[in-house]
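Re: that backbone. Tokens:
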């Protein structure tokens, strides 16, 4: 009977872990989708390739959170004849997919930046665009902290990878803010 109770308790802990990962990922989807919408609007309005590329990055981060949810749900499936030890390793695969997405977005951003170095477009920043970028830095730091905290707590490589990515994204947004400040004060475009 004790063994049955141990399995039941273990199953309950796994369900709680799964729920925490899913709730955290939904928070990431919402946060990144909202940031992407604002950044697309501001990026198009201000003619800023940096803000537009950052918006695409936010969309990929939302996609990463979707992959985390799917991976977590699949990893939680019961063992079967085909997979007698269960599906737990799917979480590792989802973490790897997220890493590949991050790499792809980084390479794409680099290519777009190089194109804009050779064919620059002068941005026009407004106070609203500066405020959106400042808020973006803050939101990405909050997302990073939350993902890293929960990722460590539940031992989820997918959440930890997404948290580290969000931390780096806040630095990218900060560099966009710095470039905007330099442009506004000195009329030197560092967009690319």
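Recovered sequence:
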């Amino acid at each position: 009977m004790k063994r049955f109770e141990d399995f039941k308790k273990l199953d309950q802990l796994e369900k709680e872990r799964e729920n925490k990962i899913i709730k955290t990922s939904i928070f990431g989807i919402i946060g990144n989708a909202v940031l992407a919408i604002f950044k697309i609007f501001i990026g198009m309005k201000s003619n800023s390739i940096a803000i537009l590329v950052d918006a695409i990055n936010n969309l990929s981060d939302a996609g990463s959170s979707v992959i985390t949810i799917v991976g977590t749900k699949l990893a939680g499936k019961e063992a079967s004849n085909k997979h007698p030890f269960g599906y737990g390793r799917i979480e590792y695969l989802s973490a790897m997919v997220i890493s590949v997405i991050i790499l792809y977005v980084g390479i794409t951003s680099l290519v777009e930046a190089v194109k804009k170095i050779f064919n620059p477009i002068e941005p026009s920043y407004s106070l609203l665009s500066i405020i959106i970028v400042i808020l973006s830095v803050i939101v990405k730091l909050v997302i990073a902290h939350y993902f890293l905290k929960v990722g460590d707590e539940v031992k989820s490589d997918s959440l930890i990878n997404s948290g580290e990515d969000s931390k780096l994204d806040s630095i990218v947004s900060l560099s966009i803010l710095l470039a905007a400040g330099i442009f506004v004060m000195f009329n030197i475009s560092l967009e690319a």
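The longest helix spans residues 2-46. The helical segments are 2-46, 49-75, 90-118, 127-154, 157-186.
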